[in-house]
Structure formats: structure tokens, C-alpha cells
Amino acid sequence: MEHLFTNIAQILTSWMVSLGLPPIWADLILLIGQWTIIVVIVTLNVIVLVWLERKISGFIQERLGPNRLGPFGAFQTIADAMKLLTKEDIIPSQADRWIFMTAPMLFIVIAVMLYAVLPLGQGMEVVDLNVGLFYFISLGSLSTICLLMAGWGSNNKWSLLGAMRSVAQMISYEIPLAFSLLGVVMLAGSLNLSEIVTAQNRYWFILLQPVAFLTYFIAATAELNRGPFDMPEAEQELTAGAYTEYTGMRWALFFLAEYTNLVAVSALAATLFFGGGQGPWLPSWLWIIIKTYLIMLVFMWMKWTFPRIRMDHLMSFSWKVLIPVSLANILITGLGIEFFRGMGW
Amino acid sequence: MIGKGLLKGLGITLKHGVEKPKTIQYPEQRPYLQERFRGCLEFDYKNCIVCGMCTKACPNNVLSFETAPIEGSKKKRLVSYTIDLQYCMFCNLCVEACPTNTLFFVHDFELSTYRRDEIKKVYIPPALTQVDAGGGQAELIPQDALEPDREAEAEAKRLKQLQAMKTALSKGGQKVLAKYVDTEEDAAVLANLLQADEKKRDKMAALIVDDKEKARKVAQAFVAKERKTQAGGEEK
Amino acid sequence: MSLMIINDLVFVLIASITLLSALGMVLSRNIVHSALALILTFIGVAALFFNLGAAFLGLVQILVYAGAISVLIIFAIMLVMHGEAHKTNRFNPSLGTHLWGGYIAAVMTIGLVAAIWFSELPEVKGRTVEDAVGLLAGLLLGNYVIAFEAAAVLLLLAVVGAIILARGVEEQ
User: I want to staple A95 with a disulfide (CB 3.0 to 4.6 A). Which of A100, A193, A327, B185 is the partner?
Assistant: First the structure.
């Protein structure tokens, strides 16, 4: 079971080589195949996630959530997706047409590209990039621009306000996000995600870096624009922020990308702090799925518990609390590493 | 301690998250309604004394009624009483104003209708139609109010005929059946067949009462089939 | 088709996208479009770094340049958006400015080409750096730490100065 998918990949490669294909082409075809499968799984998973989110919000508010369509309302999201697919695609006449149209596509492309480096099990990353973690952070920074494009392109004051908020928020929280990951990198001595997983053979980094995990978790919530940090959307004040003018499939793409980002960030947390695919009895790819889902449950739990905080509080929290704390964490981690090295461990 | 409140909040939502939902799955589960719940406004013509207090009390002109004088009396009698529920705000003022408890709320709260005029409820006392049928004051009677009675009468008449036909057929009834077949011989065959088979008898009786033309065809078919089976039996 | 040809094709593709978007940035009359074209240019440059095997530098390019452009767009929106969008990035009408710009551009281009033409570039073959990040970190935080820190202090001063300029100082 452990090597199920890697074995399948090997068998496929050797089969293609035996057909007379040069190995490099076989690798390329396999890469494209892996990539397609990941994209399909990630997008289909969103259907489950939306259902889960609605169920959890229902339970927290002592409701049942969707329960009409299918067992426990499981087909509700499929019906919603069908509805969104068939809706009219409205582009406002005063919108900046090209920017308006490309923003959701870029957003989902960036969200899906994050999965290229995530090890979804032992030896199960699409690209084993030796700067994988850095790749994750720098690609994540690009999604700010997509929101800004959406806000600007809509030519709507609410959209632009939402986009401005999201830029301010995401740029501010990128810094503690990156800093909190530095502690892990220092301990593992690598930016390669699978090497970071291997470095957690003895202890999971959540035990050695609890402060880093907390700052990462908070900053990631802000980066995802999720509640309680969902000011950029803020339905009650900005109607829906940058998404106000979007309809049908374009809007659904934003939705898809947000949940895709949620999965990516949770999977990264599982990889960096909870030992990735490490765990007893079960195969590694199953472990990482379980861990990712547990972290996502906490994200959802938080979203439906805390009220939205104020914009200035948000900014001052990032600059006055999270960044100093994460900097102090780097300092202490460095001192600790030197100390234990000096002790000869 | 920083974050204590956040943890407390998470604890509260967790607690509520595992509790049983408080919602009612409405069309399947019915809500518990208090005794004084104000659902649909109903009217009971038996108690009405046509005082008009209800229309005066109503702030939205929901209620209206028509009256006619009773000959040889100062009193009026009710011709029709209308509750236009689309304007009703269930304020209870009419119920309080009514001296004889003619108006009251019931627990039925599913008031939506497909058409706007369907929500208007018109009550016509049945006594009125009877009196008018005899008295000849036809202009006061809404035509559609009378029709259900006529239908019922026709239905009763038909049932009576059917019953008579059934008894006639079970005792033979060659004369009746002779109208539907060509010869006396055929009528005898059919009568015997129908006396033996209760299902066919009932069917025949119903057809004779409702549709004479069809009855003729079916009767002839029955005879032909019976002749054929008889012939087949003799051959064997 | 050998690997080299694929590599060349990829290079031509990336380079043409980069050049076209750079041109678009200069020629666009809408300042927001210009900024977005600039992002595309930076991403193209990052892709060139990837193509050369310098993944870390490419990612730095994306994070520092492309990621920060959004702030530039915000400034553009806040500072110059007063009217219609397609007039925000106007060409300067005076002929003298055109000439000066053309002159400077020509001198720089000729200088760059000459520099590349006359310098002897050592041929590097089959040598890949295993731990490029580690080497870079060693150089930045070891050999050149003073320059690195000086740059950091300079940037910090710039940030503080910008805040003071933007918000003003309360007079005692």
C-alpha cells in the first residue's frame, strides 16, 4: 500500500519505454499525467470541502446544514456547481475587460501550481524542487495581484476597496508567514519539502517550533482571506469585495481557488509541522490526507467561531505582534541550534 | 492571558457543534404550536349575528360581508362573508371585537396559494341558498355556490339508477338487455351470462346507466364471445 | 528532437514573451496595464532564471519584484487616478524629450552590446551547483555581510522616511 502510487508510476514509465519512447518523453508524459490527476482531484475535493464547511457551520449554529439532496445533503454542492456552470457570464460594460476576464483564471492557475512541490506521500511530489518551500511562498505572493486585478477590472468601488484591503492584508501577513517558516528551515537545514519531512523522523516540528506554528497558522488564515480575517470580502460591508461583479463560472473559479489554497496551506502545515506522511500503520499518502483534513477542520472551526476583526487591528496585529514574535522565534531557534551543537548533540 | 477568550470561544462553538440541532425538519416534522397560535383566520357562519363589529375593528379592511333584509323582521341576514387574508396581519383585533366568537384563529399556517385571488376566503351560509332556492331571490345567489349541490344530486340519482339496474340484471332482465342486442335469443344468452358473472354484470349495469352506445357494443361482444366458447365446448 | 533544441525553443518563447510584455509596458496608455505588463516581464525574467537552472534567483525575482508590483499599482491608483484610465500614462509631447530619451536608450544599448561582445565569457560545462542556496547564503551572510547589512539599514531608513513623509511629524 505504501508504494502503491509510486509503483504505478514506475510501471507506467517502464511500459512507455518498452514501447520505444525515449525515457525523457516517458517522464514528460508521466509528469503531465500526474499533474492532470492532481488538478482533477484538487478541484473535485473542493466539492467535498464546500459541503463540509456548510455542515460544520450548520452544526456550530445548531442547524443541520444541507440535508435534502442525497445522503446528508452530499449532492448539494454538485447541484450548486451545476447551477454556477449554467449561469450567465456577465461582464460589466465599464469593466476593464481583459483584466476582468483573466483575473479568476490566473488566480486558479496560481492556486493549482502550489501543489507542484507538495509531497503528497513518500516520494510523491510532482517536482522535487530543492527550494520547494521558497517556491510555495513566492508563488503565494502572486495571488495578491490576481485579487487586485479583479478589484481593479470590475470598475466598482466595493471591488477596488476589497482589493486594496486584500493587498494590504496579504502583503503584511506574507512577512510573518515567511519568518515563521524560517525556524523550520533552520532546524531541517533545507528548503526541500521532502527533506524537511525526513528531518522530522524523531520529533515533529510542532514540538520544537510551537510559536512558529501559531504564527504560521494565523498568518495563513490572513493569507487565505478566511474568517476571522475576511475583510477583503466582508459581505456585510463590501458586498463581496473583489468578487462583487463576478457571476457564474468566473465567480466559481475564485471560490474554487480559495478552497484550493486552503488545502495547499493545510497540507503545507501538515508537511512542515506534523511530519508530513509520517505515521504508524497507514500508508504515507493516507496520513497526509488525514492530517490535512484535520487542519482544515480547525480552519473551518475558527472561521465559524470568531467574528471578523477590524482592518486597523488586523494591520497592527501583523506589524506589532506577529512580526516581532516570529523574529524572536528565529533568534531563539538559532541560539538553540548553536547551543545544542555546542553541547555536542 | 492572551488568547484565553479565543480558546473559550472555540470551546463554546465546539460544545454547540456536538449538541443536537434545534431546527425542525419542517415538511416532515411539524412544529409544536401553542394553543393561542394565530394561524389562518376562520369564520363560523352559525354564530354570526351580522353586527359588523369585526369590520370596524379591522385596521386593514380584510373583512367584508354582504347582507340582505329578512322580510317581516328588522334583522338582517348574512349573504356572504369575505376574509381577504392577503392583507391580514393577524393582529387579533377582530377576534377580540366579535361578541359571539364567530371569528377565530386556527393552527393552519400554510397559507400560500398559487393565485392571488385564491387567498381570499368567501363564506356563504348554506341556509341562504336553500331559502333562496324556494324564495326565488335568485340575484343574490352566486351561481357557483349552488353547483356543488346539483352535482351531488345528479350523483345520487345516478347511484340510485345503477343500484336498480344491478338488481334488475341479477334477476334476469332480458327485456332491458333486448334493447342492446339484436335478437331475443341473444338477450337470453347475455342475461344468463350476466347472472352467472357478477363482475360483468356490474360493468354492464354501469355502462347502461352512463353510456348507452358503448353498452350496446360491449353487450354484442359479450354475446359473440359466449357463443364462441359454447361452440368450442360442443366440439370438444 | 534533442534536448538542446527543446531548450532553445523554450528560451525563444520565454524571451519573446518577456520582450513583448516589456514593450507593452512602455507603450500602454493605461498605467495599471503598464504595471501588469511589468509583472509579466518580471515573471518572464524569472522564467529565464529557471531555464538557466537558477531556481532560487528566479523565485526571488518573483517574490521581490512581481509580488511587490501590486503595491506599485495601488500607488498608481491612489496618486494618478483622477479621470479616465486610458489617459493615465501619457506620452510627453515635447520633441526634445523624445530625442533625449532615444539618445540615452541608444547609448545604453550600444554600451551593453559592446560589453557583452568584448568580454571573454568563460564556458561552463556540466558543472551544476548542488547547494546553490547554501552558497548564496554563505556569500551574503559571510563574505559580504557588511554590504548586506548596510543595504538593509538603507532600506529601513527609506521605509521610515516614507512613513514620515506620508504621515507627517507632530510638532512638539
Answer: A100
> Does residue A28 belong to the interface with chain C, where contact is any CB pair within 8 Å?
no
Number of domains in chain A: 1
Interface pTM, i.e. ipTM: 0.80
Backbone phi, then psi, for A227, in 5-degree steps?
A: -60, 145
pLDDT at A39: 84
| Residue closest to A292 by CA, chosen among A261, A265, A319 | A265
Q: Which of A62, A63, A306 is the closest to B6 by Cβ?
A: A306
A145 touches chain C (CB under 8 A): yes
B81-133 residue pLDDT tens: 888 888 888 888 988 888 888 888 888 888 888 888 888 888 887 655 544 44
Tens of pLDDT along C1-30?
A: 566 788 888 889 999 999 999 988 888 777
Is B204 in the same domain as B140? no
Q: Is position A15 within any domain?
A: no
The residues that bridge with B77 in the sheet, in sequence order, are B68
Give A304's contacts in chain B (Cβ within 8 Å).
13
Q: Do B25 and A306 touch (CB under 8 A)?
A: no
Q: Residue C85 falls within a domain, yes or no? A: yes
Low-confidence ranges of chain A (pLDDT < 50): none
Quote the domain boundaries for residue B97: 27-145
Cβ neighbours of A138 in C, within 8 Å: 59-60, 62-63, 67
Count of structural domains within chain C: 2
Q: Is C136 on the interface with A (CB under 8 A)?
A: no
Residue C38 has pLDDT above 80, yes or no: yes
Whether B44 is covered by a domain: the verdict is yes
Per-run averaged pLDDT (10 residues), chain B, 236 residues:
82 86 83 86 83 89 85 79 88 89 86 84 67 44 50 79 79 73 76 77 78 79 78 61
In this prediction, residue B143 carries a pLDDT of 43
Ranked by mean pLDDT, the top range of A45-59, C85-99, C121-135 is A45-59
Decide if A245 contacts A238 (C-beta within 8 A).
no
Contact pairs from chain A to chain C, CB under 8 Å:
63
Query: A210 CB near a chain B CB, below 8 Å?
Result: no
Return the partners of chain B (3 or more C-beta pairs < 8 Å): A
CATH of the domain at C51: 1.20.120.1200
